[in-house]
Specification:
Elements lengths: L16 H24 L3 H29 L10 H31 L3 H30 L2
């Protein structure tokens, strides 16, 4: 499971970070789904708790991601078969949307914090599916890199 690029001076837990980070992405996707269902059913407080949980799990993912890549560098896709173009077709939009998503999420959360719920709702219609895509595609990328 350890990346060949993993620097030998890395703390021992670093080799487990891809798996841990993938779990954070899966947890985030789960909370995003629960939050969506809760708000559609009119449960604002449950929605708030689920979405804050999704935000925390995504933040923990980001911390783990930065730590891992600080020590390991980039991870090369190990296969030269038919899965390679599929991997990059998932990876490229994942990276672009993940970078764009961070300010979008923060702005949508800020609108909810200020109780600007109409603006929050309007923006969340765009941000939520992107956040969900990034979380689910992150798990897919992990599975393709480390479990195929």
């Amino acid at each position: 499971m350890t990346s060949p690029a993993l620097i030998t001076t890395a703390p021992s837990f670093v080799e487990y970070l891809p798996t841990i980070n993938s779990c954070f992405n899966l947890i985030s996707a789960t909370f995003l789904t629960l939050g969506f269902i809760a708000i559609k059913r009119g449960y604002r407080e449950k929605h708030k708790k689920y979405m804050v949980s999704a935000l925390i799990s995504s933040a923990l993912f980001l911390i783990g991601y930065v730590i891992y890549h600080y020590y390991a560098g980039s991870t090369k896709y190990p296969y030269e078969d038919w899965t390679r173009p599929i991997y990059f077709a998932i990876l490229i939009p994942h990276i672009i949307l993940a970078a764009l998503m961070v300010p979008g999420i923060l702005y949508v959360v800020w609108q909810a914090w200020k109780e600007q719920f109409e603006r929050h709702r309007r923006l969340a219609k765009w941000v939520w599916p992107v956040w969900m895509f990034v979380s689910v595609s992150g798990v897919t990328i992990y599975l393709m890199l480390y479990r195929l």
